[in-house]
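lol forgot to send this yesterday, sorry. struct tokens for the thing we talked abt
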């Protein structure tokens, strides 16, 4: 179970959604093929690139060059970095800029950035002129394995995260793994939580592979000649593509992708969605809690929960609530936040729990008092 050593060809992962099917192209240097890919899909289309200031500094010139090489006209919309851009004000700004750039139906928006830009640009594309096509060029690990695939787009409301949005699938995803070389280590690590999630929810073999090869995933292919990073991203994209093709609108199986998110979102909200706890860090901590809670309910042995926690900790992700700098609110407030995030139905909560590593399931019948008692024990640690 070592990391793959060769892999200069891009990896293509299809997302089978009938007349809205599209391809995810994964590999080092695939950004150069962006213009060719767009030309093949939408000959004659003009484009508007939506990005943030940080990503623009590192990767906008190469993106514009890839489009220019294929003779594609483009304009740029550069937003401030961070979750704050995923707002009504940010949405208005992007929509107005797309209209001002005279992007018509048949033209394309391009989301060049992490999950924030992907969600924001995707929602603007879903809305302007009642729906423009868009291309995802994800630049964070989190976006390459999760947010750029599957068509969930949206913004935050003052009342909560991702409360306003639309399902709107991209027409192409270009995941250039070399773009991750400029990503700060903390953001890369936070994105790794979503990578581990795919093993933990449905693929025990992949989790074991990650335990053995995570350092190669972090190192990337540029220096080591290992293609572990590309392999890991492709495994995640295949898993997500399969789930999305079977349950695009999250009426069932897609909810498994929320493993760790119920506890994680409550902790993120408890930190005011600040950089005290990045989204992926919240997911890591939430997954550790979901495994410990499953062990407490007798669904798995303590050893499985300890194995998950040990791997996340080895990577440097938080696994205990007391690792959050500045602390979090008490069990009652966390429980309120959980109830807000995932609605209470007939007095019961919904959680993604596990019957083993790689065996997640949706449990709709969780007693809030049981969650509260569990949180009390974790807050005391
Ligand atoms: P992000 O988009 O804020 O990016 C993190 C930081 O990295 C930003 O400061 C950004 O400027 C910087 N950055 C991005 N790419 C870079 C690069 N290549 N080099 C250097 N810096 C770079 O955050 P994220 O973690 O990618 O995404 C989090 C968002 O994704 C949240 O809003 C979350 O709700 C959303 N999300 C959406 C889905 C979905 O299915 N739509 C799934 C998971 C998460
Ligand atoms: N990130 C969860 C989903 O796409 O459904």
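and heres what i got for the seq, position by position
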């Amino acid at each position: 179970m070592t990391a793959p050593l060769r892999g200069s060809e891009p990896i293509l992962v299809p997302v089978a959604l009938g007349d809205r099917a599209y391809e995810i192209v994964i590999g080092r240097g695939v950004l150069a093929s962006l213009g060719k890919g767009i030309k093949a899909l939408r000959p004659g289309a003009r484009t508007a690139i939506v990005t943030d200031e940080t990503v623009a500094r590192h990767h906008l010139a190469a993106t514009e060059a890839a489009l220019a090489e294929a003779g594609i006209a483009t304009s740029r919309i550069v937003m401030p970095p961070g979750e704050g851009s995923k707002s009504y004000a940010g949405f208005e700004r992007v929509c107005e800029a797309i209209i001002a750039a005279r992007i018509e139906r048949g033209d394309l928006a391009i989301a060049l950035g992490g999950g924030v830009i992907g969600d924001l640009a995707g929602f603007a594309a879903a809305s302007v002129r009642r729906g423009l096509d868009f291309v995802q060029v994800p630049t964070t690990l989190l976006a390459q394995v999760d947010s750029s695939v599957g068509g969930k787009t949206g913004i935050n409301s003052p009342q909560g995260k991702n409360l306003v949005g639309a399902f709107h699938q991209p027409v192409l995803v270009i995941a250039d793994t070399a773009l991750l070389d400029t990503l700060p280590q903390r953001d890369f690590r936070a994105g790794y939580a979503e990578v581990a999630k795919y093993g933990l929810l449905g693929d025990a073999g992949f989790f074991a592979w990650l335990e053995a090869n995570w350092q190669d995933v972090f190192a990337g292919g540029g220096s080591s000649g290992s293609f572990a990073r590309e392999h890991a991203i492709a495994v995640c994209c295949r898993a997500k593509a399969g789930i999305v093709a079977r349950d695009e609108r999250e009426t069932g199986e897609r909810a498994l992708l929320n493993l760790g998110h119920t506890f994680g979102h409550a902790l993120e909200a408890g930190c005011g969605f600040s950089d005290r706890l990045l989204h992926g860090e919240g997911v890591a901590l939430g997954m550790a809690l979901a495994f410990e809670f499953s062990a407490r309910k007798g669904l798995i042995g303590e050893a499985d929960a300890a194995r998950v926690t040990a791997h996340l900790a080895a990577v440097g992700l938080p696994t205990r609530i007391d690792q959050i700098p500045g602390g979090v609110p008490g069990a009652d407030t966390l429980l309120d936040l959980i109830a807000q995030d995932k609605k209470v139905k007939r007095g019961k909560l919904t959680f993604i729990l596990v019957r083993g590593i790689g065996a997640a399931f949706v449990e709709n019948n969780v007693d809030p008092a049981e969650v509260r008692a569990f949180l009390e024990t974790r807050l005391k640690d």
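Residues 259-381 form a domain with the Dehydroquinate synthase-like, alpha domain fold (CATH 1.20.1090.10). anyway ping me if u want another try
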